[in-house]
Structure formats: C-alpha cells, structure tokens
Q: What sequence folds into this?
C-alpha cells in the first residue's frame, strides 16, 4: 500500500466535498509529504485557518511521528 | 502558565517579527526554517529568531500557545502568520510586504535587522 493512502483517506473524510485532493510522498521515504486540497470550505478563511483544518485532519499521523514534514497547499473550490 | 510560555509570549507580543525556527539564521538546521527566513529576508523584514532546538520544551509550549503544530512559525506583531508554506505563498503574491507595511509602517525596511534571542 502506498504510504500516501492513509493520509489521503483522512483528508477525504475531513474534506468530503474536495474538488481536488492529492498527497505526494516528496522523498519516497514515507515521511515527507506535500498535500493539496481544494474545497469550498476554505473560501473566506485566512491561510492560517485553512492550514489549521488540514492539520486537524492529519492530527493522528502528525502526533505519532508518521509525518516528519508536511507541506500544505490549500485553495477554494476549483 | 509556565515561565517558559511566558517568555515565549513576551517574544511573540513584543518583537515586530518573530521567527521560531530550527537553528539560527547563521546556522539553519531545517529546510523549512530556511524557506521561511528567505521569504522574510526577500520582503525586507526584520527578524527576531528563536532557536527551538535548544530545548524540546520550547516547541511544546509554543505550539500550545499558538495552536500550530509545526516549525517554523512566523508572527508579525503578535499575530500568527503561519509556517513556511504560507509565508512563501504570501511573499510570492506580495501580501507579505503589505502585511509588514501595515503592521510595522511603510518604512519597515529601514529597521530590518536580524537578531537571535533566547527564551530559556
């Protein structure tokens, strides 16, 4: 199973209406990730609040050390 | 509130621009701290850096205070701007300079010194 699957599942659950959702393993090592989420929920929110929603969705793997580094790109619905 | 959290809060609230990073501007220990610092430098921002690697408790207390789980963290006049991704994005759109200008005054570049402070 690709290392990105568990993260993608968590994000799908948190952003069921996402118009774009991607998780990229940046180094192939399973701990440095780039996530991209486009969702109408982000519209009108500051970037800080947009990223907070992503951090909340990935709280588990952030806390347990699965994610060493996370890059986030959020946008409104495409 | 712990004394450490109190000292972190003092830096956040009193410094024009606070950067909590891994390492120092002279000896950067993490790519993301480097990205945030570069974006600030390009915007001509003053930087007061705190090395969070000095004591693991700094990161815990800082994240408790800010509600932000990762490092680096950038604050302008006490307000959390975000981590490396956000600061980079704001720098690219020119919004970082606008925010610095409105928070610190249009002449902010003239006092753009870099320094390192300790919270322990």
A:
């Amino acid at each position: 199973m690709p290392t990105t699957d568990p993260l993608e599942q968590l994000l799908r659950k948190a952003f069921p209406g996402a118009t774009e959702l991607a998780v990229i393993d940046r180094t192939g090592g399973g701990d440095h990730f780039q996530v991209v989420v486009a969702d109408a929920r982000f519209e009108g929110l500051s970037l800080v609040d947009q990223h907070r929603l992503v951090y909340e969705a990935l709280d588990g793997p952030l806390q347990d050390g699965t994610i060493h580094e996370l890059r986030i790109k959020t946008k409104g619905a495409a | 509130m712990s004394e450490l959290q109190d000292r972190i809060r003092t830096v956040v609230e009193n410094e024009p621009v606070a950067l909590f990073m891994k390492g120092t501007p002279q000896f950067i220990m993490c790519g993301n701290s480097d990205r945030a610092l570069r974006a600030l430098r390009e915007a001509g921002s003053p930087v007061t850096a705190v090395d969070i690697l000095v004591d693991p408790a700094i990161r815990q207390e800082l994240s408790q205070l800010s509600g932000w789980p990762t490092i680096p963290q950038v604050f302008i006049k006490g307000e959390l701007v975000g981590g490396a991704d956000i600061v980079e994005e704001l720098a690219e759109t020119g919004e970082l300079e606008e925010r610095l200008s409105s928070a610190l005054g249009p002449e902010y570049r003239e006092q753009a010194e870099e320094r390192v402070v300790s919270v322990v």
The mean pLDDT of chain A is 94.
